[in-house]
Amino acid sequence: MRPIRIAAVGGSLRSGSVSEAALKYCAARARRAGAEVTVVRGPELILPPYDPDSGARTVGERHLLAALHGADGVVLASPTYHGGMSGLLKNALDHTEALAADGYLDGRSVGCLTVAWNEVAGAAALSALRTSAQALRGWTVPMGVVVQAGTEFTPDDTCHDPRTTRRLDILTDQVLDFAHMRRGGREPGVPATATAVGAGL
């Protein structure tokens, strides 16, 4: 059986972004566990505003859609802007309407994390991110993480804060575990039979 595939999508354009660093930490942990990981960074999400009447798709949109369509699990990371996720990430999620015929993110585990100076605002952004993932039929994992702005990550994708490290580890492991259980030997986007679901559990 092929490795689990994870799409790690980050919604920040800031140089030295903590949310991107946290996303890369999760991606590195997933790779160490044997997963194939596609990281879609903020600059790759500079897409035109979603237009349901537009038939044209940019290279960036096709890259995002291919990563999500082929994934068994997804990690979404966003900075907190005024109590919500970044507009960059929200617009990217709007573009996933192109996956409607395949059930959006149905059958995929989704882990969500936000970065904020204020934990109340971060929690609000996290809730919005989880709501969007669930509206896209993704199976959000129980662990959601608000990372404190200013948390230090090293270039080799490690984190200096033990509490943040532990929470990101749990989030990543839940995405992988749920993806393994849910897949049950089937490709993403293919409806599971009762037998396949039972075998996966």
UniProtKB/TrEMBL annotation:
Question: What is the protein's species of origin?
Answer: Streptomyces flaveus
Q: Tell me which domain of life the UniProt entry assigns to the organism this sequence originates from.
A: Bacteria
What cellular component terms from Gene Ontology apply here? cytosol
This protein's name: FMN reductase
The record's Pfam families line, in alphabetical order, gives:
FMN_red
In its UniProt record, a GO molecular function of this protein is: FMN binding
Q: Where is the NADPH-dependent FMN reductase-like domain?
A: 5-147
